[in-house]
Specification:
alpha+beta; 4-stranded mixed sheet; about 55% helix; about 10% strand; globular
Length: about 120
């Protein structure tokens, strides 16, 4: 199964980062899903839209739901230009630390979007 990465296509930062990865994904080894344009994909997996907006969600090759940094590990493992980074993170066992940092960033990003008048609940 091809992994799936769900991203916020209405967020400029998210769009730019995913566009960068998509450009490198020459083999089309990842399915990229803009959750703003395809909310039904989330519903099919019982993922709440607001949860997916707050923290990056994805589905690994085994069909399991993953959240946060685990998605970056999937992306980096699939892209030859980033595979080395994934290897370093795994070897040094940095994933828990990166997850902690990512979750703090994601919480800040989500609160900032909401405070700027973004009504995601609609």
């Amino acid at each position: 199964m091809k992994p799936i990465i769900f991203y916020d296509g209405s967020c400029g930062l998210c769009k730019r980062e995913i566009a960068h990865y998509q450009k490198l994904d020459k083999q089309h080894s990842i399915e990229w899903v803009d959750i703003v344009a395809s909310q039904d994909r989330l519903k099919n997996l019982n993922i709440e839209f607001l949860d997916a907006m707050e923290v990056l969600h994805g589905v690994n090759e085994q069909g399991g739901l993953v959240k946060g940094v685990a998605n970056f590990m999937i992306i980096w493992n699939k892209l030859p230009q980033y595979r080395w980074l994934s290897g370093v993170i795994q070897k040094l066992r940095l994933q828990p630390l990166l997850q902690w940092g990512y979750l703090h960033f994601a919480k800040w990003r989500f609160k900032r979007r909401m405070s700027q008048g973004c009504d995601l609940a609609k």
